[in-house]
Design brief:
With about 475 residues, the protein is mainly α. The chain has one domain. Helix content is about 70%, strand content about 5%. The strands form four sheets. It has a two-stranded antiparallel sheet. It has a two-stranded antiparallel ribbon with strand order 3-6. The protein has a two-stranded antiparallel ribbon with strand order 4-5.
Amino acid sequence: MNGLALFLARFQFGITAFFHFFFPPLTIGLGTLLVIMEGIYVFSKKEEYLRMTRFFMRLFAINFVVGVAAGIVLEFEFGTNWSQYSAYVGKIFGSPLAIEGLFAFFMESVFVGVMLLGWKRLSTGAHWVSTILNALGSPLSAVWILVANSWMQTPAGYSIGKDGIPIMTHFWRVVFNPYFLYEFLHVVIGSWEYGAFFMAGVAAWFLIKNNKDIVMRKALTIAVIAAVMVAVGQIVLGDLSARGVVRYQPTKLAMMEALWHSQKYAPETLVAFPNNKTQSNGPSVGIPGALSMLSYMNPSARVMGFDSSIKYVNQKYDLKLTPSMFPPVWIVFWSFHIMMYLGFYFAVLMIIALIFLFNGKLLESRKLLNVLWYSAFLPLLALELGWFTTEIGRQPFAVYGLLTTANSVSPNVSDLEVVLSTLMFILIYIALAWLAIFLFMKEMRERVSGKDEISGVITARNEAVTGKEVQS
């Protein structure tokens, strides 16, 4: 494989991650919120929390079904486009994926069915238990997928066999490889953040139309409180995750920060236009010493630049990499920085919303409700940009320091086949995303019109709730 095919192959890990994680984060995030909603109903017996749970459970079901279809393509892709990768590290990489399919996915699928179909067949408490088990199944599934991916970032627990193929020597070292905990926490908290923003946005959409909707008033309260906690926590976890990159992947850090040459008092570059050919940023804006401080807690610390990091990797792994083998730095730089800026935006937005909530002014602020609605899917964008940073930033490696992407692709796949399969892959997922959004909006419009089986017409008791009521 060469030319255009290899060019696309270097980005296909990023593209694959982008679409494969298009749906599961909402499953993880919304699943946890369903436990909270239904738990409040179980202990309070208030009808509005039952209505809330059942409505958002329908949205959860739509996302879950579409997400299952989305995950199938990735499994086949390892055999079609990445046959050399599968042959080389399949003995290690295949284990966590097999565990995910045999245990976590089956657990999740079974209890999704019980949760969705068990309303009239289970007691209130038993049904809540099924919701809890479903919510545990999604992160458990993510554990094994992220074990596999984090092992690609920091391979551990293996040795090279006589045939030159890596073999697993320590299963738990594979599982708890150096980057696993950083990646797992960052992804799961990001998924909770997405679930909270999605729920807040949907509730805001209903309240813009009718701010006396007691169900959505309560839903917005839960979502805003949850979003504040995870948005602030995500900033801290994002910093810890970046420190993992500092320690284990110097070439990725250099691309994330567009740092071309090693230097003390390295700046945190905020805006730049990186150019691989000239190895410069052109006009740029940065904070002197901030990158050194964030990386090593010392503003005068020396941070390895792009050129030095390549030399370091070549020496450490006995390779002969050149700068031309790496992806355009601007892609990694802007993926990382836009994700970072969105993270701060999420925290600020939800802190403002929380202040308005406690002051009893959130429902009166139509502008803020609109901002919440328009921001509903932005955490998904941040998650996907994070995957672009993770996967494209690892290039030219498929497994960092162990296997390059050029040596991972199927040797008998032509340029045209890679182009067509990549385009088909993208189109399929765009169609699935459109289907999910269409079904989301259908459910929401039916609830507004009173045609859905869950909400019906707001009762006289709920209509009597005034706009002066403080959400609690």
